[in-house]
Design goal:
heterodimer; A: alpha/beta; 8 helices; 10 strands; globular; B: ABC transporter involved in vitamin B12 uptake, BtuC; 16 helices; 74% helix
Chain lengths: 275, 407
């Protein structure tokens, strides 16, 4: 049942970029449930790697393992070809891996700039006699940083970084959650179903933001059920099934139909897909 | 942010709440309504209905009464400022008044035993912090809801106060403790302080505006800046001049404002304060960005304990005695929670300000004072206070940006 992933099984063509984050042989068990059965995965800088699969295929589990929210039972991790360990969210953050959860986890009662620098507020100089948490916040610096982050992602609809999050649309909130992940000195951004609850215009806005992350040289992992969105942003598409790899496709060389077959039946049964 | 011509009253109210001083609007309206009722409507009605009266007597709005009102509300305000901090977290503290009672009783016993007044004050402030933080530890690390922990604290501390004061009453004659309520700041100093404060606020806002321009950030309109400064100036000078025209600004009011300013500054301008708002707004979000949610909780309860201890000292100083009914056994707890909520601090966490708590305390104090003056019974007072509390929470719920129906 468990597909052995080899080089020829990965139907990626000639232009595989050097991986930035790479994992191999990841196993994760929850009691009797074997959620990940030796998964291999990689993502390069300046690339959007989509992670697709049916419910229970292991997408979210793999995402949480990468973010350190779950510790893998087995598996090896590399960042830029040096082995690393990811055992906690703190480890992941220290390696520059940031995750944007589906529920976004923004503080609605705070404004955009406060949300973007929450937990790492810039403080004014000259108050060294106080512990850091009691020094005055340099809120102008905070606004400047927030404005830069928003400009980098070109979130045009956002009028002011002083607007409270509770007054923003779903797409704007998603963009701000992404901006927060990007702003935290990160090189890998994991996005969990970023367009799941959004309308057409809002979805386009979020996809624009994801596309822009390629320009900022981030490695982006994009989980989605919506293949139309996936084909709009992804460079490569990694298909999981029953906790194992099916294949990784170049988005330019494949079709939504082929992906659907891979998701639902795997490659062995999906005859004629050339893998 | 300009309201459309067709927008409803509720929409306008919501937009008003979004502005920086908007949070003050409902509580100021309540205060204005209560003051004009007791200060203007009641005297007029008495004048018209009583043919023997030769002139209208504005007892409520007399400087003497306003002065007493401020002093009466000071203890409630001190406790309300502390309670606001835990309300911001989405927690509640039912033990604040009992903590204040224990601290006041301990203060009385200490000065009776010959401990210098200033040292006794410092000791009970430390005790207050420990009493608050102990409850915070139970809430944060054991995971018991704050309602239950502080309810237990309320009962336990009430008992503790009775143990410390077996007779239920103790006179406090220590000159240092008494001086907090008795010392008056000379008229000229009071005015000078007020002027200095207003100039300070004006200079700070202008400097801030200049630095915003320097950095290319969006600017506040001049109207907004000068409106804020003028608003602040009117409040400060009105309070100082009124108190001066009866006696002078009492040291206790000055200390209350200073303590509130300190707590207010910590909550709005430091990373610690930001983490209080973040935990109250979305605790999960705060945890994910790496804030230590438990430590924030414990610290917040410590602050309530400190403010309760200060409230206890103020009360002991004002009454010259410590009695069980004035603190733990009386209505102080409900009045101070009511003051915080009337001030517009949300019980759901994440919204509110300590300055509003002071205004809320004034509302509660004015209501009691006005009803006393017009000869209302204790039963009337209770029912009126309940109605005002409900009204304040209703205004808060309706003017919330997400709307009253969403919850």
């Amino acid at each position: 049942m468990q597909p052995a992933v080899t080089d020829e099984n990965n139907s990626v063509g000639h232009s595989v970029p050097p991986s930035h984050l790479r994992v191999s042989g990841v196993h994760k068990r929850f009691g009797g449930v074997h959620a990940l059965r030796g998964v291999d995965f990689e993502v390069a800088r300046g690339e959007v790697m989509a992670l697709v699969g049916d419910n229970g295929a292991g997408k979210s589990t793999l995402m949480k393992v990468l973010a350190g929210a779950h510790a893998a039972d087995e598996g090896e991790f590399w960042m830029d070809d040096s082995p690393v360990a990811i055992g906690s969210p703190h480890d992941a953050a220290a390696l520059g891996i940031q995750i944007v959860y589906q529920d976004l986890a923004l503080c609605e009662n705070l404004d955009v700039s406060a949300n973007l620098s929450l937990g790492a507020e810039p403080v004014k100089h000259g108050w060294g006699f106080l512990p850091r948490i009691l020094r005055p916040i340099d809120d102008l610096e905070m606004e400047v940083k927030a404005q830069e982050a928003i400009n980098r992602l070109e979130v045009r609809t956002l009028k002011s970084v002083r607007a409270k999050v509770e007054g923003l649309s779903g797409g704007q909130r998603q963009a701000i959650a992404i901006a927060r992940a990007v702003g935290a000195e990160s090189s890998v951004v994991l996005l969990d179903e970023p367009t799941a609850a959004l309308g057409v215009a809002q979805t386009r806005q979020v996809l624009d933001v994801v596309n822009r992350l390629r320009g900022t040289n981030h490695a982006v992992v994009y989980i989605s059920h919506n293949l139309r969105d996936v084909f709009k942003v992804a460079d490569r598409i990694c298909v999981l099934r029953h906790g194992g790899n099916v294949a990784t496709f170049n988005a330019a060389d494949t079709t939504p139909d082929e992906i659907v077959v891979a998701i639902t039946r795997g490659l062995d049964e999906g005859a004629g897909n050339g893998a | 942010m300009v309201p459309d011509a067709g927008s409803s009253f509720v929409d306008r109210l919501r937009e008003l709440r979004q502005t920086r001083f908007g949070a003050f609007v409902p509580v100021l309206l309540a205060l204005a309504a209560i003051w004009s009722y007791f200060g203007l409507a009641v005297p007029f009605w008495e004048y018209l209905s009583d043919p023997d009266a030769d002139s209208i007597r504005f007892i409520f709005l007399s400087p003497r009464n306003i002065y007493n009102l401020f002093m009466q509300s000071a203890v409630i305000a001190t406790l309300a400022v502390g309670i606001t901090i835990v309300l911001l977290l989405g927690d509640i503290d039912l033990s604040a008044a009992a903590t204040a009672g224990v601290c006041a009783a301990l203060l009385g016993v200490l000065v009776l035993a010959g401990v210098p007044g200033w040292m006794a004050c410092l000791i009970v402030m430390a005790v207050g912090i420990v009493m608050g933080a102990a409850q915070g530890l139970l809430v944060a690390y054991v995971g018991i809801p704050s309602f239950v922990v502080t309810l237990a604290g309320l009962l336990g501390y009430q008992g503790l106060m009775q143990k410390i004061l077996p007779t239920g009453n103790l006179n406090v004659g220590d000159p240092f403790v008494r001086s907090i309520a008795r010392v008056l700041i000379p008229d000229s100093w009071g005015l000078a302080l007020a002027a200095a404060l207003v100039v300070f606020v004006a200079v700070m806002s202008l400097r801030r505006q200049a630095r915003r321009r320097e950095r290319g950030l969006e600017l506040d309109t001049n109207l907004a800046i000068w409106g804020q400064v003028a608003f602040f100036a009117v409040l400060v000078f009105a309070a100082v001049i009124t108190m001066n025209s009866y006696r002078s600004v009492p040291l206790m009011i000055f200390l209350l404002v200073a303590a509130t300013a300190a707590v207010g500054w910590v909550t709005t301008s430091t990373p610690f304060g930001r983490s209080i708002f973040a935990v109250g707004g979305n605790a999960e979000s705060a945890r994910r960005v790496g804030l230590n949610v438990r430590r924030v909780r414990v610290a917040a309860f410590g602050i309530v304990g400190l403010m309760a201890a200060i409230g206890g000292i103020f009360g002991a100083s004002r009454f010259g005695s410590v009695s069980y009914t004035a603190f733990a056994g009386g209505s102080l707890l409900l009045e101070s929670i009511g003051a915080a909520v009337i001030g517009g601090t949300s019980l759901f966490g994440g919204r509110g300000s300590v300055w509003n708590a002071i205004l809320g305390a004034l509302v509660i104090g004015s209501l009691g004072n006005g009803l006393d003056l017009s000869g209302a019974s204790a039963a009337d007072k209770l029912m009126f206070s309940g109605a005002i509390l409900l009204l304040a929470v209703a205004i808060d719920a309706i003017s919330r940006p997400t709307g009253g129906t969403a919850r």
